[in-house]
Amino acid sequence: MTTSTLDQPLSFQTSPDQYRHWKLTFDGDIATLAMNVDPEGGLREGYELKLNSYDLGVDIELADAINRLRFEHPEVRCLVLTGNLDRVFCAGANIVMLRSSSHAFKVNFCKYTNETRLGIEDAAENSGLRTLAALNGTASGGGYELALACERILLVDDRNSAVSFPEVPLLGVLPGTGGLTRITDKRKIRRDRCDVFSSIAEGIKGKRAVEWDLVDGTGPLSKWDEMVSTEARRMADEQPARGDQGVAFPPIEVECSEAEDGSPIRRYRYVTLAFHDSDRTCELTIEAPDACAQSADEALAQGAEWWVMQAFREFDDALLHLRMNHRDNALVLVRAKGSEATVRTTDALLAAKGNWFVNEVQHLVKRTLKRLDLTSRSLFAIADQDTTFVGSFLEIALACDRIYLLNDPEIPVHMGVTAMNAGALPMSNGISRLETRFLGEPERVSQVLAHQDREHFDAETADELGLATYAPDEIDWEDEVRLALEERTSFSPDALTGMEANLRFAGPETMETKIFGRLSAWQNWIFQRPNAVGERGALQCYGTPNRPEFNLERT
Amino acid sequence: MTTSTLDQPLSFQTSPDQYRHWKLTFDGDIATLAMNVDPEGGLREGYELKLNSYDLGVDIELADAINRLRFEHPEVRCLVLTGNLDRVFCAGANIVMLRSSSHAFKVNFCKYTNETRLGIEDAAENSGLRTLAALNGTASGGGYELALACERILLVDDRNSAVSFPEVPLLGVLPGTGGLTRITDKRKIRRDRCDVFSSIAEGIKGKRAVEWDLVDGTGPLSKWDEMVSTEARRMADEQPARGDQGVAFPPIEVECSEAEDGSPIRRYRYVTLAFHDSDRTCELTIEAPDACAQSADEALAQGAEWWVMQAFREFDDALLHLRMNHRDNALVLVRAKGSEATVRTTDALLAAKGNWFVNEVQHLVKRTLKRLDLTSRSLFAIADQDTTFVGSFLEIALACDRIYLLNDPEIPVHMGVTAMNAGALPMSNGISRLETRFLGEPERVSQVLAHQDREHFDAETADELGLATYAPDEIDWEDEVRLALEERTSFSPDALTGMEANLRFAGPETMETKIFGRLSAWQNWIFQRPNAVGERGALQCYGTPNRPEFNLERT
């Protein structure tokens, strides 16, 4: 297997005028996002993105488009996702790209595509952006998985076009971008039909696809455009409008520099990500400014400049950068600083949802925090001098594997709760971080939330409330944190990944946790198996003259 | 890595007089099962079972002991699980055994140990067999996982003894026999404490272990015996007795022969397992006899001879044999035959639970069916001539990945439902197989169950009810089944394992599904990673002069 890395650090920012793979058009309250992948537009050399197959770059544009629809186009009530190629909607993830990628890249690529698809569902649920997949041709593998992320799926009936999961029969891997989970748990298709469907490389088309509920409708080519636009119209009409005037979604700026030892530093306006390459840690700090919008109207007027939107977009970008461009980094020390009053004022606005824009920002904060939960790095919250782990910022601490709290009466450490800790920012498991933390002692959740309308509390109280993992005083602080860092970075990165994936999501399960916890874990396992990625593994052999040769042992 | 296989097929049958690793003693209504592993008693050469570490053989005896307590000793109301070594309760799975085992063996070993521990919890929940782990010394890794399967845990306070999960720090793998899931979801310990606990190789002892809820109590050596017996007495007293007189649990007999092509055949009294080595399939058939007990009393008088107990014990043994001794076998064709009247009469008795013994048998049937759900082989139910997929036998078909139903008016195929299909035999996800199958069409569950008090229905009706994956007539039957077999056995065994693990458990999640779906999947992934099993992986280096060397990339 060739392992290839990217020459340049990946950037997760783009905008419609830079899209190479999608066309976003508008017709009143209906938007159309048409997949039109540039075969030469891969993120790196070595593969051609034929037949609307995709790589990470295609998904970065998709994620951008969904965000823009939510922020720049509140007038849009229905999004039609379709393709611009003849007979093919989308062939899924590019095979040559997959097989020439390292294991770590494959896993992170799949995680990002999963997050993007869940983002489409989040837009439908929380922005009232109805989503219609109009499959103008065959949707295979990741192509059909993308359609599954939409609320409704129409498939053209041209006697050829089908939906399919050819991964198991052709590639020896899984429809792992949520595919298997969505057919069983979202569309709730009978398990034996799921089994048959996932075994038929050529897929299922026409009437049978409707009968098995793989798609919601089908129509002949002659009536296709009309059928799609009627359906989109119907869906849009069901939906109340969110707003008239959108908010621009400008690029976020980052200043890159180097520390004395050469470790990179990324400085955004409210977020800093500073690496310490020597010990494989980094410091991720978010800071609230002194002044902020005092009303939902003022927030809307500020738009993307509203500090909390900007800060969490930066935080999100920092996480993606960390995941993809610094894979050897083991441990993130997370801090939150700045004005408590700003956080409290802002959280109150987010909770009141005074207008569509504030609602969008709340969900952006929620998604960013979920991205943190799902980041496969050890996360230690560091609550030391001048820390402001309050409200939305407290959620960041609660997302961490541990919370180190400096408990010294001389040194101010601000911890506190707001309405944002009471369920407005749920984890993938559907409950709040406090509820997850105190699964065994639910009374503690109310004890913590009782501080909601009060001032911050000090370290001593925070510790009594159960918010600290360790709360050493100043004398022990430095040693304790240092030893913890040394210990953590000495462990097997894989064992930590597995451990964290299991410990972070106690309690209920959702489609989301099933996708990340079960489906992805099996896919990652398969991505390591010689039957997929060995010299004669199915993924390696596909499209070559070689036939796969399997080790037949069942595990 | 050395891959070793067993010279002889493994047997899963044993009895207390053959135990090498446990001592089972009785004192009225309290039983004590003391771990006393014979270091020389490993299942194969190459490792010594020091410090009460275990291999599969130790767990086979444990599973046997739990079954015997349920059937032979209904007078027992509390089981004390303890150790006979000084200062050590149990050191967990034997490391040398693990590292010298093939991947497939490791995975199947872990699955069996998980099933056994869940069996302990099932006994507590459904037989009223209270369980108390009396940790007379350190319980590490799998040793503590075993304790976690008990309702209550006491730990001796001798200043040395601790509970610990040293897997991540020392071995680069997970506490994967349910460990991580049980601390977060059963004991509901705070996630950051779980993180700390799973990082401290030496574990946590004394007061802190109680404070963190890792154990329920601790006491000094001088008062240890008294403390344990007081607690056991208290637990037993809370529990009503089940019965006075047990039912013997004799060995089940199997006759091994060979087919003409040399493929092995195992014939039990009611079950046959016939291999077709040439195409890597096998036929697993269960058959109901013509006559059967007509009342719960009669069933109790027959004891282990009651056909349904015997038949499902045989079925269970066949599954274990298939899993461990025929790992290249890809696809099981499952049939159920025999007297429908017998199945109906028996199911009615099982549903009525007329006495403790009938209740035990019902749970044995339930556990066997769960073992089938969790068997990592493709399962096709074959409903052809003279099939009796009725009631408990219908559950077998519903556990399969597909159901092939011969739909020909000339050929009788009996399908039918009884009370056993209405929730009495839940899957690991906590709901019935019908509810799981029709997750998206719950009204179909009642349509099927409406046939409960009627005669069987024919193939046509079964198909209309949604019980068939394919229902060809006689003309197409042979070709269709043959092609399906050929297709299935051509797929990557690993892709099938992952696909089936995802498709079989739609709907709600439980601790059980989390253990098998999430924790096990991550563990299996780690068991493939060079950081664990490579030449310089942690599992390989442990106990040798070599220090592990990690690939530091996070996935």
Characterize the structure shown.
Two copies of one chain form a homodimer. Helices cover 41% and strands 17% of the residues of chain A. The first copy, chain A, has 555 residues and is an alpha/beta fold. Chain A folds into two domains: 16-237, 2-enoyl-CoA Hydratase, Chain A, domain 1; 255-496, 2-enoyl-CoA Hydratase, Chain A, domain 1 (Alpha-Beta Complex), CATH 3.90.226.10. A seven-stranded mixed β-sheet of chain A has the order 13-14-15-16-17-18-20, sandwiched between helices. A six-stranded mixed β-sheet of chain A has the order 1-2-4-7-9-12, with helices on both faces. In chain A, strands 5-8-10-11 form a four-stranded mixed β-sheet. In chain A, a hairpin with a 5-residue loop joins β13 (255-258) and β14. In chain A, α3 (103-126) packs antiparallel against α13 (356-373) and α11 packs parallel to α13 (356-373). The two termini of chain A are 23 Å apart. Residues 1-6 of chain A have low confidence and may be disordered. The interface between A and B is large, with 92 and 92 residues.
Query: Based on DSSP secondary structure assignment, what is the total number of beta strands of chain A?
Result: 21
Strand content of chain A: 15-25%
What class do helices, strands and sheet pairing of chain A give? alpha/beta
State the helix count of chain A. Answer: 22
Compute the number of structural domains of chain A.
2
Strand order, largest beta sheet of chain A? 13-14-15-16-17-18-20
Q: Judging from the principal axes of the Cα atoms, what is the shape of chain A?
A: globular
CATH topology description of the largest domain in chain A: 2-enoyl-CoA Hydratase, Chain A, domain 1
The CATH level-2 architecture of the largest domain in chain A is identified as Alpha-Beta Complex
CATH homology superfamily of the largest domain in chain A: 2-enoyl-CoA Hydratase, Chain A, domain 1
CATH class categorisation of the largest domain in chain A = Alpha Beta
Q: Cα-atom Rg of chain A, whole angstroms?
A: 24 Å
